[in-house]
Amino acid sequence: MARDLRLLFLSHYFPPEGNAPATRIHAFARRWVKRPEGAIATTVITCAPNVPDGKVYDGYRNRLSQRETVDGIDVIRVWTWLAPNAGTAKRIVNFVSYMVSATIRSLFLRRPDVVIATSPQFFCGWAGVLVSWLRWSPFILEIRDIWPESIVAVGAMRKGRAVRLLEWLELRMYASANRIVTVGEGYRRQLVAKGVPEDRISIVTNGIDRERLRPTPPDPSLLARYNPDGRFVCSYIGTVGMAAGLEVVVGAAERLKRDGRRDVRFLVVGDGATRESLAGQVVAAGLGDLVTVTGRQPKELMNAFLSISDCCLVHLRKTDLFETVLPSKIFEAAALERPIVLGVGGFAADLIRETGCGICIEPENDAELLAAIDRLRADPSLRADLGGRGREILSRRYDIDRLADDYATIVHRVRADWIAGRR
To answer: pTM for this structure?
Structure first.
């Protein structure tokens, strides 16, 4: 019997962190290790969990190396220079320290059959390049964000020599990969425009785990805490970062306040670089009765927060770059039959319109946000229809089990092509 394929997966994030890359990697890897045919024995090299404030979670330490098994996945956590998810210079030091630590730690493992490294952390991708060179293994680069273009788009860095150097390294990184896997058609087109051959790119989107994400009745404890007076709740659940553009929530709440309305409540559930700033805006504008910024919450409570939400806001700043994005928040809301208010243009808007599982608004337009909320608030049957369409259509189209099999097939093919190329 053939042995399992040995995969080394490099990721800056992994559970108990609850962001999109951590969730995606865990969802795929826990399926790969259990495949009855073509199993993939997966080792993940990651950091001590510390997102978003740079403080290590309880039960972990920022050590040179610590090891655990999570759902059959071999997880190795390496030392990094910790930094909160805010500011550019400190975060780059954090990313570079991971690149160095992960590369060194890989030298003490059995040689992997395939190496995968995932963005958006650019230097995690370069860790994959270095490990594949040093261990003489084929390399799959997973692109979840176009970096450094994305940090320029949100204003975290300005065009200059540093960005031009990063762009040069970006192209070298693409050229070093045996295959690039990206999460959507928009990213594929961007990569082709940057000179990546189309036949070296595969698309494996994020997906929906229908077993883990099921509609449930509203959680009574969260209702009592966050919506005791039974208002209509619009929730944003995810990273509260520069890209999210959540000033739109403040603008919509200011409109409610001017009109003397108390029938809508916004919940912003999560943490990130702009969470403190957003909370400060809410306080300064006297909107504490209309907007609640919860801060970081345990991953296991995300379904409960979705259960008390009448609709879910998925929003990004208004920039051409983000028109290529397909946010994972769409899938989570759809799986729990929550209607989506989408403030993202491009491919995401096309998907929502095609499937009929939400209402599209112009990004950063607080008037359109409030109008969409009012439309949903006034029509319970519309909410039920949009939510039902989301789970029925999207969970079938983006089933995580099928996507995991598709990705596994790519991994095996890359390994087979690499072996054939050596002969």
So the answer is: 0.89
